[in-house]
Amino acid sequence: MSAPVILFYVFAVLAILSALGMVLNIRNTVASAMSLVVTMISLAGIYLLLGAYFIAVVQIMVYAGAIVVLFLFVVMLLNLRTDRFAPGRQWLVKAGALLLTIVVLSELLRLFSGALPLPPAEPVGFGGYRQVGIALFTDYVLLVEMSSLLLLAAIVGALILAKRRID
Amino acid sequence: MPIEVIVKTLFILLVVVGALAPVITWIERKQSAVMQDRIGANRADIAGITVLGLLHPLADVFKLLSKEDVVPTGANRVLHALAPIIAAIPALIAFAVIPYGGVYSFGDWNLSLVAADPDWGLLYIFAIGSIATYGSVLAGWASNNNWSLLGGLRVSAQMISYEVTLGLSVVGVFMVFGTLKLTDMAIAQDTTLRLFGFLEVLFGLPVPAWLSWLRLPAWGVFYQPLGFLMFLTAIMAENKRPPFDMPEGESEIIAGYHLEYSGMRFGLFYMSEFIEIVVIAGLVATIFLGGWAVPFVSQETIISTISGAFNRDFATALCMIVHFATFMLKVIVMIWLQMALRWTLPRFRYDQVMDLCWKILLPLSIVNIFITGAVLLLTRGAA
Predict the structure, then answer these.
(1) What is the pLDDT of residues B235-266, one digit of tens each?
(2) CB nearest to A66's CB, from B78, B79, B160
(3) Cα(B6)–Cα(A43) distance, integer angstroms
(4) Which chain A residues in 20-49 lie under 8 Å from chain B, judged by CB atoms?
């Protein structure tokens, strides 16, 4: 096996194990969040192997570096030691898990039945920040602007909610 | 070549980081002593020889290693043990993409003095920097101590806030040099620019020939003076040392996140802070101060001047040493600057730290991006 293949298996196994660790660590919220970080970093490693450098770095910067830190911030702020879901909501979690299992299984079936075509060859500079930037600000500029408006609305909403509490 | 990469990595770890970090603890003690009119560390000795107090880092290590490793009751043992390691690793691996010399060709062998040279070098540093938060946050949480928890909370809030500014403050530099690759950035700064050239480029005023003699090195700090100040502020805040030491805040929360650590585990937090100082110095030197470039004398000039007397390979090797020395000099100057700031400025209050980030630095960095973009559009046109 070549080095990229070995690395792929290392990252894939790490990602699956840490994802399991995240779900199974019900009693310890912080350990669960740290498992999520390991999952994110392993996914970033797989992106790197695919040549999507920019996505890999953004995956670490945004998901592993910022979002999970915010999760931890909230966990620590509320000082949750033994976190439990409210008993009434358990069916919601189970229904979500069932739906997700069906989707993943059907995707796996499609994959192993050979229905997926081979991807075309990567263009030059694929996955670099230049290509991502050019794609975002030419072909997908409308979507970028729409999502930034959405984020702006969320920020303004959060500010108004927080300000009402302070006033 | 794997052997080349291993040698370069070892070189960085042993020479650049491993040798500088202990020396910095000595510099810090001596500099604070000078600034506070004291004598400073001078007692540690081997058979009566003190070497200006340079043996203190060694004494520190022995002291920390021989201390009892206390784990508080009710602490999460695994995370408590892991946290210092998680804090130290990002500091150690961040230097991988910082070039400590240019590219030198000996015959058909091109030697590039950097351990790893990806196209997205600066993004790598930001990614590593964002991971570095976890060590302190986990330490604060796992210690089962309210002061530690407060420290951990402060770390997460402060680091996330300043990461935003940190990224935005260098966007201007990306735009000027048109790259995120740190080696290319350093090469782009190995030249000079005319001091009054901007009059001609921006306003179309002809600059007389005698003024064109006044030149500056083409360093990032001259293209982006505001960006330099904002980047230095933000990255010093990321390092959590005074005046930004909210997470430790000795007068408020005792020692914050590393309150419940002793022995070498405490030493690891301390060490990673000092290694981060070296990384910050190297990064600022590379982005804003020309990296390894000698001001006013480009690599080609050095090599062709020396190779008049010796053979070309020898001249290239000599140039390599000169560049490495220049880089280390810039790094040491930046370390000194950080030390001087640390012992000069009074501490901020917590709300002042947050105000500085969100109300001053963030708007200014966005304005800086717009102005840089407008100037580049005017001078270079829409390419």
Answers:
(1) 888 888 878 887 777 777 777 788 888 888 88
(2) B160
(3) 26
(4) 28, 30-31, 34, 37, 41
